Amino acid sequence: AAVRRQSLLDKPARNGAEKLPAIQRKMHFEEIYQGLSSLHAVNESQRCIHCAQKARCNWTCPLHNAIPELLRLVAEGKIIEAAELSHQSSSLPEICGRVCPQERLCEGACTLKPHSGAVAIGNIERYITDTALAQGWWPKVSPDIATRKERVAVIGAGPAGLGCADILARRGIQVDVYDRYPEIGGLLTFGIPPFKLDKQLLAMRREIFNSMGIEFHLNCEIGRDIAFSELLSSYQAVFLGVGTYDLMRAGLEHEDSPGVVQALPLLTASARRVMNLADDAATPWIELAGKHVVVLGGGDTAMDCLRTAIRLGAASVTCAYRRDEASMPGSKKEVVNAREEGVEFLFNAQPQFIERNDNGAVTGIGLIRTLLGEPGSDGRRRPQPVVGSEFVLPADVLVMAFGFQPHAMPWLETHQVTFDKYGLIETGKAGRLSTQTQHPKIFAGGDAVHGADLVVTAMVAGRQAARDILVMLGDSSPIQCSHSQE
Ligand code: FAD
Ligand code: SF4
After folding, report:
1. What residue intervals traverse the membrane (predicted)?
2. Residue 91: burial class (beta carbons within 10 Å; 0-12, 13-18, 19+)
3. Helix, strand or coil, per DSSP, at residue 454
4. Which residues form the pocket of ligand 2, taking CB atoms under 6 Å from any ligand atom?
């Protein structure tokens, strides 16, 4: 034990990816974290101590990526082997390497974390695929591509739909993916801002998936452009990876006033301009240049809005959050980045009313100071308003960033698909496979089933649905798609 402890203490300190200086990065939408050089990646990979058989990073990664083995291959300079291994358990490894909250997942469980800092697993995962693709490597296309007669329709090209399509295509199933947006990725493309995830990566992934035989039908909304019943009769199975798009409201009066905007339409409109796509009537452009912007909410979506407002030239950008800094639900790293870029934070301030001028436009947000009280049913301490502490924070634009809940899908209602009390699609009930709905041909996964969560968990669900669809189609031969060491 003493030798092992010494070896932990002897490791050099974590050396993760460099980020661009704040002064520079807030001028544009390019990714702030830089890729690792080969030497940097090798040195960081060599810090892994290859703990016993049950590496905790492996089982806390929702995909069970073979992390110690990937680190060993990188340390030996075997990048192509590492890319192949990475693609066995993940459909979008370079994307997860960029957007997973690693501090809560793989890196949070790294044995080195309390000693010299967790190995920079996310940065290395990104490095592996970025480098292999730059060297001309291309993910292996299934040898039995389109050799089978079965056809499966996937609705939604987000991480759940892409994970499902990836596994099915590798099994030679013909997969058609339908999405109402003009590019694949779902919230990867039209939610997560470009400074966290370069949109070119999705265009590259579309090419990769196309080369595997997956066909994308973009700008095509099921229930509007094509009837769902048409898909049900044309395909052997249908996967629903439709996300959750109903925006949560603050419950304040005058939330529809000019100057009050919702987080996702703001982020989508901004992403479309960065991608040189025309503005869309459903998510019109919102001018923030020279405006005083206040974002209400304290999660990752709020951080994305704040940092987008900075880049769009707002005169001031403030985050108002009803709890204290320690209680913020999102990634601490993103709070640091926002602060570095010039965001002001106002903690323990709960919205009370929207202040407007004679024309009905927003001029400020009425807030009341809070103290944290006893924990509620979710275990988090409840903010208690301090009587008489109301004040108004001036604002030209108020951004509501309170999260998402399931949207209505009337086109599903006549097809035996059931929903829980929150509107989430129910799967895995009485005798069904874990991702199968009450209709035997309809499967579902991702945010639409488990609620708004993460890219990696949506992908896991999509990949599981593909396995369930294969079982339903009578193919139960094993699929190598995770590396669980449990
Ligand atoms: P989505 O990504 O929402 O994809 C659903 C797709 O279905 C969409 O493309 C939609 O157009 C399509 N669709 C829906 N209905 C239809 C229809 N009728 N016809 C055709 N197409 C349809 N997670 C992280 O892990 N890291 C992050 O940094 C992170 N940042 C985030 C930032 C923001 C602003 C938001 C909103 C979310 C963030 N998330 C993050 C969460 C993550 O993006 C989601 O959990 C994940 O994308 C869910 O995947 P999904 O495939 O279930 O749904
Ligand atoms: Fe870590 Fe996410 Fe990669 Fe898994 S997918 S190894 S959790 S960064």
Report:
1. none
2. buried
3. coil
4. 61, 63, 65, 67, 90, 96-97, 100, 102, 105-106, 121-122, 125, 456
- Cβ 179 under 6 angstroms from ligand 1: yes
Q: How confident is the model at residue 256 (pLDDT cuts 50, 70, 90)?
A: very high
User: In terms of C-beta density within 10 A (0-12 exposed, 13-18 middle, 19 or more buried), how is residue 65 classed?
Assistant: buried
Per DSSP, which regions of 321-441 are E strands?
Answer: 344-346, 349-356, 362-375, 381-385, 391-394, 397-400, 404-405
The CATH number that applies at residue 202 is 3.50.50.60
> What pLDDT does 484 receive?
43
> How far does residue 175's CA lie from ligand 2's centre (Å)?
26
Written as six digits, the tokens of 287 are: 């001018």
Q: Which pLDDT belongs to residue 485?
A: 39
Q: What is the pLDDT of residues 330-351, one digit of tens each?
A: 888 999 999 999 999 999 999 9
Residues 198 and 258 occupy one common structural domain: no
State the distance from the centre of ligand 2 to the C-alpha of 68, rounded, in angstroms: 12
Interval 259-302: pLDDT, tens: 999 999 999 999 999 999 999 998 999 999 999 999 999 999 99
Number of domains in the chain: 3
The domain in which residue 255 lies consists of: 249-402
Q: Using pLDDT thresholds of 50, 70 and 90, give the confidence band for residue 253.
A: very high
pLDDT recorded at residue 145: 61
The continuous run of DSSP H or E covering 466 comes out as: helix 455-472
Please, are residues 308 and 284 in contact by the beta-carbon 8 Å criterion? no
What burial class does residue 42 get, using C-beta atoms within 10 Å of its C-beta: 0-12 exposed, 13-18 middle, 19+ buried? middle
Ligand 2 centre to CA of 301 (Å) is 20
- Ligand 1 contact via 161 beta carbon (within 6 Å): yes
Same domain, yes or no, for 172 and 28?
no
> Does one domain contain both 279 and 326?
yes
Nearest-CA neighbor of 221 among 174, 181, 164, 265? Answer: 181
Q: Is the per-residue pLDDT at 245 higher than 80?
A: yes
Ligand 1 nearest-atom number relative to CA 161: 51
Does this model's pTM top 0.80? My answer is: yes
